[in-house]
Each structure stands twice: as structure tokens, then as C-alpha cells.
Amino acid sequence: MVPESFSYWQRTSPLFSLSTDLPNVSDVAIIGGGLSGAATCYWLARAGVRAVLLERRALADGATGRNGGFVRAGTAGPYPEAMARLGPQTARAVMDITYENRALLRQVLQEEEISCDYREPGALQLALTEDQSKEQRQEVDLLQAEGFSAQWLERAQVQAMINTPLASEILGGCFLPEQGLLHSARLVQGLVHAALRHGATAYQAEASEIGRDGANVRLRTSQGNMVASKVIVAINAWTSTLLPELTPVIVPVLEQMQAYEAIDPIFSMALSVHMNTGEYMQQTPSGTLLIGGYGSVAPNAGGSRKACQHPRYKRLSRQ
Ligand SMILES: Cc1cc2nc3c(=O)[nH]c(=O)nc-3n(C[C@H](O)[C@H](O)[C@H](O)COP(=O)(O)OP(=O)(O)OC[C@H]3O[C@@H](n4cnc5c(N)ncnc54)[C@H](O)[C@@H]3O)c2cc1C
């Protein structure tokens, strides 16, 4: 039976059973079965390392199972901002790494025959105000000058790409061709299947303590103790449960992705807009509308859930 807590991505993936028969020795133990743990396990196994993956509940049970599925090559914020903050050389290096990462993703999906709805329909960021239009045009100019594909689209061009009447406040948008979308949990499952084929093993086990054991690392888990030469902690928001010394530098951020019932195709690209804190959407090949964003400091760190209670995206369409 599918657990109640499973996310949309998990529910729409095949069931993936993890053994609980944990060995007590390993070369490298990777804790966390999200994208970071799965990818690390895959690359280690591919390099011939005996890697053991530990996941406390199910693969993609954290942020990986609840994200927007955007595969974005580029800096996290607008490129001009990254250039100002990091300097032109570092910003360019970040861009290059993300493009290399995308090339590697394409290669691995093909080599390992991972089926995760990967496609490259491009990404469109809508502009709702004159300021946003100006910023996006500047970004397009800068990206083009640096040799990257980017295009400013007027409102009519945006409307031609979206199969619903747009609200009048949409002025245009910045289109980045080649940007991708995928099914996040199926990607993780595919990576773990591939890692297993390359000799890794994966278990359902919750790590509760990490300590030294001579030159090795000792792990206490829900399925017994394990000694490993090295341990990689890939548990994202739960990091401070195993490494409390990192608590002061971790700021929990609440971000949500909501899945709506399947509808006829409206748009195919990765769509984003800044209405609140930055919202983004994808329509999956089966028609489901996924809407994410509403980022704020998490309730357990003093923030509130308020932002996510307002589905402001409705204002984007006249219907
Ligand atoms: C709403 C939202 C939307 C996002 N959208 C995008 C997007 O469109 N594109 C993008 O690139 N990124 C996006 N992100 C960010 C991206 O999802 C994360 O950066 C990424 O999934 C982090 O992967 P991870 O493996 O580090 O962590 P997680 O996916 O959180 O995985 C951590 C895993 O560790 C396990 N775990 C925890 N404690 C233990 C323990 N003690 N023992 C064993 N296992 C344990 C958990 O069960 C979990 O499976 C989004 C994030 C959110 C929240």
C-alpha cells in the first residue's frame, strides 16, 4: 500500500523496495536516498567503490520527492545579479558547471536507460511589471553577449505558447530554450537501480548516530551498527540530527509544491513568475499541474505557513 505521506512524485513512481538486511561493514556509506545520495552512490559505484546507501523511509522522501522537477542550467538568481555578486569570472564558471551537469545528465539517462519524463521544452519566466520586463531584457542581453541562448518574448509571443487566455498584466517573458523538466523520483529510482547494477547496495535504515572507530566511522542505525571507511551525509534538512555542530549555520526554509488534478495541456515549458516569493509550474506529460514556491523561513525556525495559503497563480489567467 502507498504510504499516506508519499508525495506526488513518489505516488507516480513504481514501488521500490529497500532491503532492511544491513551489512555491518562497508567501504563508503551514504546516508539519505534523495537526489544527492542517489547520485553520489551512482557515481561511486560506477567508479568501482563498494557503496552502501541508507534511506530511513523511501527513496525521494525528502525535497527530491516534493520539488518542481526543473532542470535548470544557469545561476540560481538572474545572471546579472550573479555577476555583480560573484564577479564575472566566477559567475561564468558557475554557468559552465551547470551546463556540464546538464550534459552529464543527458548522458547518464541515455547510458543507464533511465526513464523519468526528461524533456527540454525550455523555461519561460513571465514579466508582470515594467521593472520585471526591464530586468529580464537586461538578462537576455547579457546572456546573449556571453554566448548563451536566451530570448525576450513580447506578450503576443508568450500567448502563442500558452493555451489559455493570459491575464492583461503579463507583459512578456524571458525564454531560455533547452531548459529541462523531469520526474524527480523516477530519476532517483533510476540512479539507484543503475548504482545497484554497478555493484552498490541500498537499504532502508535510519542512521541515528555517527562516531569515530579508529580510522573508520561507526554508524548506529535502526537496522544495527555499521563500520565504514567513509560516511557521506546527504540528508539535507535533517543534517543537524546527525551533525548537531552544523545547527548554527543551517536555516530551514519552507517551500512547497502542490499537485492539481490532470487537465488538458496548457503549457509545456518550465514556467516561472515572481508574484510572491517566486513561483514555478510544470504541467506533467499526464496533464497534472504542479505549482511550487511560496518559500519562507520554516515554521520551526520562526517563520509561518501563511504564504502558501494564497494560490495567487489564478491571477495569471483570464479563465
Ligand atoms: C518545493 C520545492 C521545489 C523545488 N524545486 C526544484 C526544482 O524545480 N529544481 C531543482 O533543481 N531543485 C528544486 N528544489 C530543490 C531540490 O529538490 C533539492 O535541492 C534536492 O532534492 C535535495 O536533495 P537531497 O538528496 O540533498 O535531499 P532530500 O531530497 O531532502 O533527501 C534527504 C533524504 O534523507 C533521508 N534521511 C533523513 N534523515 C535520515 C537518516 N537519519 N537516515 C537515513 N536517511 C535519512 C530522507 O528521508 C530523504 O529521503 C526544490 C525544493 C523544494 C522543497
Automatic annotation (TrEMBL):
GO terms for cellular component: cytoplasm. Pfam families: DAO. SUPFAM superfamilies: FAD/NAD(P)-binding domain. GO terms for molecular function: oxidoreductase activity. Residues 27-296 form the FAD dependent oxidoreductase domain. Keywords: Oxidoreductase. This is FAD dependent oxidoreductase domain-containing protein.
